[in-house]
Design a protein that fits this description.
About 55% of the residues lie in helices and about 15% in strands. By secondary structure, the chain is α/β, with parallel strands linked by helices. The protein has one domain (about 5-165): Rossmann fold (3-Layer(aba) Sandwich). It has a five-stranded parallel beta sheet with strand order 2-3-1-4-5, sandwiched between helices. The longest helix is centred in the last third of the chain and has 18 residues, at about 120-140. It is globular and about 45 Å long. Its cofactor is Mg(2+). Pathway: Metabolic intermediate biosynthesis; chorismate biosynthesis; chorismate from D-erythrose 4-phosphate and phosphoenolpyruvate: step 5/7. It is found in: Cytoplasm.
């Protein structure tokens, strides 16, 4: 059984919807960032204090390991698409959903100070979106528009997953 993989900007709803999909689909949920911290025995912030490359290397190891599992819902970090190897590993055994949330909503809702790459403020969110938008879209099998209520967006996700399973997987 293929994994369900959620990608998107920090604050787009990956973890929230990942947990909801896990309940609805009766599949285990794994937050890749939490898994990485547990696996590596250190925080993401400590990796970034060393260098972004140190974090991306650890993230790539984590993604490779998670992609080998079956039938789980994976919430990825916002920059997972920065490395082609991550996308290839996730695609090998997964259906990739991009949660596309308007950047203005992210800026208004998310405590950017609590996110390592967003600590420089709201402009950084807009810059990251411009930098990653194409990679997100190119990586996704399905694009989910996160503009409705959580219930509407979850319904849209479930319908898209069921259609993909019915016709592709």
């Amino acid at each position: 059984m293929k994994n369900i993989v959620l990608i998107g900007m920090p604050g787009s709803g990956k973890t929230t919807f990942g947990r909801a999909l896990s309940r609805e689909l009766n599949r285990p949920f794994v937050d890749a960032d939490d898994y990485l911290e547990e696996r590596e025995g250190r925080t993401i912030s400590s990796f970034f204090a060393e260098s972004e490359k140190a974090f991306r290397d650890a993230e790539e190891r984590t993604i490779r390991e998670l992609a080998d599992r079956q039938g789980i819902v994976i919430s990825t970090g916002g920059g997972v698409v920065k490395r082609t190897a991550n996308v290839e590993n996730l695609r090998r055994n997964g259906l990739i959903l991009l949660i596309d949330r308007p950047v203005d909503d992210i800026v208004n809702d998310v405590e950017v100070e609590s996110r390592p790459l967003l600590k420089d403020g709201p402009q950084k969110v807009f810059d990251l979106y411009r930098e990653r938008r194409k990679a997100y879209r190119d990586s996704a099998d399905i694009i989910i528009d996160n503009r409705g209520t959580p219930e509407e967006v979850l319904g849209q996700m479930l319908e898209a997953i069921h259609q993909a399973i019915k016709y592709k997987i």
